[in-house]
Description:
Layout: E1 2-6, E2 12-17, H1 26-48, E3 55-59, E4 62-64, E5 69-73, E6 78-81, H2 83-90, E7 96-100, H3 101-112, E8 120-126, E9 130-136, E10 139-141, H4 172-175, H5 177-188, H6 195-203, H7 207-231, E11 235-239, H8 247-260, E12 268-271, H9 278-293
Parallel strand pairs: 3-7, 8-11, 11-12
Antiparallel strand pairs: 1-2, 4-5, 5-6, 8-9, 9-10
Helix pairs in contact: 1-2, 3-9, 5-6, 5-7, 6-7, 7-8
Amino acid sequence: MKAALVGADGELLYQARLATGRERGPDAVVASILDFAAELRAHGERHFGEPAAAAGVAVPGIVDAERGTAVYAANLGWHDVPLRALLTERLNGVPVALGHDVRTGGLAEGRVGAGRGADRYLFVALGTGIAGAIGVDGRVEAGAHGFAGEIGHIVVRPGGTPCPCGQRGCLERFASAAAVSQAWAEVSGDPEADAADCAEAVESGDPLAEAVWRRAVDALADGLVTALTLLDPRTLIIGGGLAEAGDTLFTPLRAAVERRVTFQKVPTIVPATLGDTAGCRGAGLLAWDLLTRTNTDPSEATV
């Protein structure tokens, strides 16, 4: 878990990390979050003269932001956890915002990161899986049921590799950092090899690595063109572990997208800039939005 005290402009005033402790079970994870939040609020009071005025929390899985419930998170063993209510009680009644981890990170990238100033953007995180956040005029669209942005489950290779979601040929089975790691480990014969190793091999001119990388880039471009056809973003922000390859990813990806478009406008394709602080910054921005909506004076508060 990562936590921070965040200023109104997304500035990180203090950061901390704590193991989730998920091996102790789902209830223990909730207890750790509540304790961590209380400690962070107390730190703010000690060092800034007053406690945080609001709180934001971002979690993985299926999130009902309106109800403040973590509906389902497989890795944490959660089902219908009323996290907002629990945090509000633990933090003595301060307003609490709950968000989805990727959409929250995308909110931060759009407002204070790589998409700053863009009225329409799409944030795509290439990690263990692939997920996205659709940014519109400074907010992130969750969709009618909280599933907006699940670009990783666009089918790009019909009948292809089975996906845990139940479909075959989903984008994340070909273009996530995990997928590239698996493909390169198999081709290279090194079970410990990962996507970063594959990128290094591409840079050194290894033809086997280039083939693995090209398949991933082509699949990613197919998925992205589908998304930009539907959404018409002005800026396309790519983050997550695979984006750390820099130009090794972005140069062929931009070219692959341009080859595929016909009538569509190609967005500016840029790397994310906030790294692993995006989630904390985004959660803080959600909290600041609560203060704005409730007309609380945020002039010297922290969240």
